[in-house]
Amino acid sequence: MKFLYAVRGWIFYLLLSVTIVGLALAVLPAKLAGCSLRWRYDRLCRPWAKLVLRLLKVVCGVDVKATGMENMPDSGPVVVLSKHQSAWDPFWLGAYLKQPACFLYKRSLHRIPVLGWIFWSMEMLAVDRSKGRTAFEHFMETGPEFLKRGWWICLFPEGTRVPPGEHVRYKTGGARFACATGTPILPVAHTAGTCWPKNSVAKIPGTIRVSVGPLIETRGRDPHEVTAEVEAWIEAEVERLYGENASR
User: Fold this and answer.
1) pTM of this prediction?
2) Distance (Å, whole) CA 217 – CA 187
3) I need a labelling partner for 215 at 20 to 30 A (CA). Which of 5, 68, 153, 198 fits?
4) How far apart are CA 144 and CA 213, in angstroms?
């Protein structure tokens, strides 16, 4: 069975590679032609992310069930802090957040052929992590401009992909930014690591459960206090979602 999961995983990645090339060939000309960033996102990137999730379901048998979608506001600035278990997370956030998702990522990704062209074309929050504190200061300076333009800034407070059953202390950067700008936080919990394991080609058939939590207000609050609240909600919700899967 593991062999079959791996074969299906390779087929999925092959198809994913084809779609990445297609997206690059669409996004680059759109940027050069002067199409707005919002147009490029809504007409090209969001449909692409939904296509990838559809391929994941058809090829690998991985479905998604989301609850709490009503907790997403229709408009206004939001900082999204999400559980991070695998490479699946950005696809779902990019596809189903009500406003465009802006990710903080390493500037070095621009050097990757094809995929790097897409990152460059979408003009998101690229930082040079080798510069340490300076990189975070750059984020604090440029991030508010994205909020003003209607983008929701998405961060993974764990700082790395954490497999199911493991735990790392959440970093305060996302909460510090949210508190400094008075922006509410939208917490997102999910169980993607059970179907899309970290560093694994194989994809395990099943249902990824997603839960979107109520907004957490940040104005006038201490970032450490806010981080602790976000961590407590996400981790407790993940355990509840695992319990739901086990009971079925």
Assistant:
1) 0.91
2) 11
3) 198
4) 23
Residues 157/81, Cβ–Cβ less than 8 Å: yes
Most distant CA atoms of the chain, gap in Å = 53
pLDDT in tens, 180-235: 999 999 999 999 999 999 889 999 999 999 999 999 999 999 999 999 999 999 99
**Rounded-to-integer distance, Cα 166 and Cα 188, Å:** 17
**Number of other CB atoms surrounding residue 58 within 10 Å:** 11
Q: Two tokens at 216?
A: 């957490």
Question: What strand order describes the sheet that includes 206-212?
Answer: 62-67, 206-212, 185-190, 79-82, 152-155, 101-106, 125-127
Q: Is 74 exposed, middle or buried (0-12, 13-18, 19+ CB in 10 A)?
A: exposed
For residue 163, what are its two tokens?
Answer: 């497999």
Within 10 angstroms of residue 6's Cβ, the number of other Cβ atoms is: 14
